[in-house]
Amino acid sequence: MAKNNTITFYDLALSTGATISPFVWATKYALKHKGFDLDVVPGGFTGIPERTGGKTERLPAIVDDGKWVLDSWGIVEYLDETYPDRPALIPHPSVAALTRAMDAWFWKVATGPWMRCFCANYRDLANKEDHEYITHSREIMLGKKLEDMQAGYEERLPGISADLEPLRIALREVEWLGGDGPNYADYRIMGSILFTASVCKTSPVLADDDPLRDWIERCLDLFGGLGRHPGLFPLFGLPHPENGQELFAPQGQGGIHKRNTGVDSTRAESEKITQGMSKD
Ligand SMILES: N[C@@H](CCC(=O)N[C@@H](CS)C(=O)NCC(=O)O)C(=O)O
Q: Glutathione S-transferase UstS-like C-terminal domain: which residues (predicted)?
């Protein structure tokens, strides 16, 4: 399989040349993780069925030595099953379960909301021949005119940043979601962040000092700077709001980071939450 170590990869890109789709970005990283070279078939939204010989209306799609594989998750399953001697994308069933959960959460709090913040840019940055289709289809998807949906995005961006705290917690004590090295969990979330970078022309989405920055920069650098496409827009530079709204929680949230090592570690909190209670 994979003649000359090369797999044919159907891209979905904007007029900037940057890949747009989160699914397609995650798949690009997955193929590189497996050590393959990509024979990229370029293109935008118009003519996917024609480009793929009627095989699909949606991308990503790959062809491995004549074998078509569709769907980002299907491609990952195929790659791990067909090439078990190469680095695993999903090294354990728990990674599949947790990646699906994390992806669904991220879609709800970030991918979808960022899409609504930049949906008019999305259309304007697409190839000219895609504009009519994107306007029509995305207005049905979003239930509003794209300009009306995008309006007021500046007020929404701080809340989206704040909602990413679970990802910050996950990356507080490990280098990668995959642990010592990246796996498909990293690529899946990064795919959505790269989607955002392809359309966030009107504003960065995260603060310069966001704790996620180190992980994001390392993901961008992987595989010879795969994520550093010149058509992408800056992710960092969102100003801290003057009203004091926090873009991230410096101390972390939730229970896990507050490790209970005995009464010394909980005394301050106990004193605070029992203030005013009678001592008997
Ligand atoms: N379940 C599919 C979803 C793929 C998908 O929805 N791709 C979108 C791009 S984000 C697409 O090809 N859209 C083409 C269109 O809207 O015509 C997968 O994981 O690959």
A: 97-219
pLDDT digits over 67-96, tens only? 999 999 999 999 999 999 999 999 999 999
Query: Does 3-82 carry CATH code 3.40.30.10?
Result: yes
Confidence (pTM): 0.95
Beta-bridge mates of residue 18: none
Domain boundaries in the chain?
A: 3-82, 93-225
- Mutation to probe ligand 1, out of 20, 21, 132 (largest number of atoms < 8 A from CB): 21
Give the integer Cα–Cα distance in Å for 59 and 68: 12
Q: How far apart (Å, rounded) are the C-alpha atoms in residues 166 and 26?
A: 20
- Give the HSE-up count for residue 68: Cα atoms under 13 Å, Cβ half-sphere: 11
Closest CA to 78 of 21, 19, 7, 177: 7
Asked whether this chain's domains 3-82 and 93-225 adopt the same fold, the reply is: no
| Cα-to-centroid distance, 68 and ligand 1 (Å) | 16
Q: Is 236 in the pocket of ligand 1 (CB under 6 A)?
A: no
| Alpha carbon distance 222, 210 (integer Å) | 20
Residue with tokens 């609504």: 116
What share of the chain has pLDDT > 90, as a percent? 92
For 61, which DSSP code?
Answer: E
> Measured between alpha carbons, how far is 42 from 17 in angstroms, rounded to an integer?
9
Q: Is 72 in the pocket of ligand 1 (CB under 6 A)?
A: yes
Architecture of domain 93-225: Up-down Bundle (1.20)
Is any atom of ligand 1 closer than 6 Å to the C-beta of 107? no
Nearest CA to ligand 1 atom 17: 45
